[in-house]
Predict the structure.
Amino acid sequence: MLRKLLKYDFRSVIKEFSILWPAALVMALVMRFTLSMADAEILGFDIASAIESLVYFGILVAMAVVTLIFIIQRFFRGILGEEGYLMNTLPVKSWQLVLSKLISAMVVTIFSSLIALLSILLLIPSSLYDVFGVAFQVIVDYFSSGRPDNALYALEFLILMLLSVSSSITMFYLAMAIGHLFGRNRIAASVIAYIALNAVVNALVMVLAVAAAILDINMDFIAAMTAQQALHAAFLLMIAGCLVLTLIYYFAATYIIKRHLNLE
Amino acid sequence: MSDLLIQSSHLTKTFGHKAALRDVTCSIGRGRIVGLLGPNGSGKTTFIKILCGLLQPTAGTLAVDGEPVGLHSKAIISYLPDRMYFADWMKATDLFDLFQDFYADFDRQKAAEMCRSLGVEPRDRLKTMSKGTKEKVQLVMVMARKAQLYLLDEPIAGVDPAARDFILNTILTNYNEAGTVLLSTHLISDVERVLDEALFLRQGEIILHNSVDNIRESEGKSVDSLFREMFRAVPMEGGRF
């Protein structure tokens, strides 16, 4: 059933982004061309580079905003809004509905980030061959440096990125699910729930840190670590944190939708 | 398979302090066309939404085909909501695909035929269709299933009298005769001829549940006249509102 749900969530992704993603790349190419003209003929170097940085920034912001709105709307309308009349009466389990939304949202985030990165590479005012050649060389050098830990760092970094994306998305889901518990002003309640969730997580991290200090836990083992061990430990700690948050947010949101759905 | 399709026991639903359903106890069998009748705000939609799992009851129990509302009940219920449930990006053919994937009892060929006879082009974007056409598409989706229980929430409320007959005939000629149709409306005279049973709701309470034949026999009047009598709004004395 999850596979079938994903089929329709990905159809909506394709309808939404099939124009936007290619358009972002085409726009980057057009900008690249016009900026190089301006650079050569009319404007001074500083103005041209200022415009370029503005454009880089603009593309990043636009992509992030569109992606964020899409992710929030697919959940808010698709499960808790009018489309919920269709989706919540399908013979599927609530956890499958939420998981399908989560997986498609993560794929959208990854693709949007890659497209944004690619747009920025396209905007760099050197020949494309040089830009991608250098990027490729950096990656090759990193993995062939002879330091075996490098591959492991890359893997840890990748997992951490994925889990931090999933914890951010599921946090939005839980905030909207909590907002749904209120009879009216559900949007305002969702926003407040989001702010409150953030505050609670920050407070918990503080409490843990303070507790460690008060209890005077022996930290000598950290000092005894090599730099590599310390970096791995930091990665693993952050991975564990994001994983725990993702699981809590996901199951709490699913529980609310299963037990307390009230489409009015 | 349970003998009774719907068994509701002391079902109650409150929104804040306001009770939308109070202590509703009733049972409905198979192969019946049941009118869920009552004025606006009497709890008809609330009852249907609880049956679909879109609302959770505050108290009481409910069984559909002998099981609590869940995967099984959702697989055998065909629900026509009182609003549009499409995503913006969908065409009717996307809905056909979706229903085919999720409902074993969906008959795609029948849906396509119904669209043809209703003059709907399934490859058009739903977003661009008129309100009436969208309603037709939803009716097609619901009636192209061979469901055990059809829950139709106000299927004729928003249309002119000629279209009402058309919609009722579409329902009558397409539903699964072994299944039950529960149809909510406040337009009794239009549906009375097709009903087997009538269930009157007032302020969230069942005040009458009987077969239409029994009502006519014992009361000596049509369901419509009985309804008008029971729900007559009493104007305030003095003529000023």
Notes: Chain B touches chain A at residues 15-16, 49, 52-56, 71-72, 74-75, 77, 79, 81, 83-87, 89, 94, 98, 101-103 (CB under 8 Å). Chain B has nine helices and ten strands. The CA atoms of residues 20 and 204 of chain B lie 5 Å apart. The first strand of chain B starts at residue 6 and ends at 15.
